[in-house]
């Protein structure tokens, strides 16, 4: 294990959304339970997935759509670790990178957020075919619309009345302090690793691998 005095600050790369920032500080709080002297120095990065609000996620496999720019900067040495939603990681990771910790995480379920009682033919927004199929099996008659954007942007579309409901990960609502939103859990399987956070380091950075072992939880 690295000594307690070997360093005090770790440089961190992550997406620049409010949710991503909350995730970074969640990992930091967990690490402080074991290494109370460690501080994070974050760099917030806009990725391809943040810039491109038009490409449907329905057509994408496990690509680097949400990690590409972060991966590139990390491989160039701009920061020692990066932090992502584990479900957003590409498969495989970019050569040279390695998962050094998967957090225990929070509630992994999907929820349907709505403001008013849903009509039988309610228009529900989701960018996930899996979520859409779970809803079809649960509630007959729903119609579906594709949606992209941050959690706040998706909720704003709901609040504007353009849609009747929107599917969001419960973990996102928890991390953003939005538990007051009216919602119901959706039956069916959620995305693998939803609700958990991944800490990524260079394959060669054994110090980071050892440091973050304390917050890792097996799948």
Quick summary:
With 219 residues, this protein is α/β, with parallel strands linked by helices. The protein has 7 helices and 10 strands. It has helices at 18-32, 48-51, 68-75, 129-138, 151-159, 170-175, 206-211; strands at 9-15, 39-45, 81-85, 97-102, 110-114, 123-125, 143-145, 165-169, 183-185, 197-202.
Q: Radius of gyration over alpha carbons?
A: 18 Å
The count of helical stretches stands at: 7
Distance between the termini: 23 Å
Query: CATH superfamily of the largest domain, called what?
Result: Periplasmic binding protein-like II
How is the quaternary structure best described? single chain
| Percentage beta strand | 15-25%
Order of adjacent strands in the largest pleated sheet:
2-1-3-10-4
Q: How many structural domains?
A: 2
As for the CATH topology of the largest domain, it is: D-Maltodextrin-Binding Protein, domain 2
CATH architecture of the largest domain: 3-Layer(aba) Sandwich
Low-confidence stretches: 1-5
Main beta sheet strand tally, sense and closure: 5 strands, mixed
Q: What's the level 1 CATH class of the largest domain?
A: Alpha Beta
H/E series, N to C? EHEHHEEEEHEHEHEEH
Q: Output the structural class.
A: alpha/beta
Indicate the overall shape: elongated
The proportion of residues forming helix, as a percent range, comes to: 25-40%
Number of strands: 10
Mean pLDDT: 94
